[in-house]
Design brief:
166 residues, alpha+beta, seven-stranded mixed beta sheet, globular, GNAT family N-acetyltransferase, EC 2.3.-.-
């Protein structure tokens, strides 16, 4: 196995059907350290819900290889949920790929009129994921119950455009 330098170029783009085998690999292997794949039981329902113009499945690609994935699902009017944030283990030394996916998801969400993006995490991983989510620009919102699962909800405010990246 080889390790990619963190400044190696990659692009973020909408997923295509041809990406599915690599995306499936990432969903299995690309969980960020300390995170929990709580969506597994709901995966088919989440996949079936993708379809409106306000929703998008994004991938990060380097040299023809999918190295990151993220789905934007419209949960209710004006609110999108992010699912399957995954990064290839060789690219997890920093959050560069995850941040790029989040930026692309936020840009898409703003373009289609969503006002907030939310991410959920099981309560038992709070200490691990809170720091990651804060680095990605999310803030803790509340705890809630979703289908027998106690989760923490984090959100990214889309009301204002972000400051340009240096």
């Amino acid at each position: 196995m080889h390790s990619e330098p963190s400044n190696h170029p990659f692009t973020v783009r909408p997923s295509t059907p041809a990406d599915q085998p690599q995306v499936d690999r990432l969903i299995r292997e690309g969980l960020l350290p300390g995170h929990v794949a709580y969506e597994a039981a709901r995966a088919d329902r989440i996949r079936q819900s993708i379809g409106s113009d306000r929703e998008r499945f994004l991938v990060a690609e380097a040299d023809g290889r999918i190295i990151g994935a993220l789905a934007v699902i419209e949960a209710k009017a004006d609110v999108g949920h992010l699912h399957w944030l995954r990064v290839d283990p060789q690219w997890q030394t920093d959050l560069e790929v995850a941040k790029a996916l989040i930026r692309a998801a936020a840009e898409h969400a703003r373009d289609v009129g969503l006002l907030k993006l939310a991410m959920h995490a099981p309560a038992d991983v709070e200490e691990t994921v809170t720091a990651h989510y804060q680095q990605l620009g999310f803030v803790f919102s509340r705890t809630r119950e979703i289908e027998d699962l106690h989760v923490l909800e984090y959100y990214l405010n889309l009301y204002e455009k972000p400051n340009p990246q240096p």
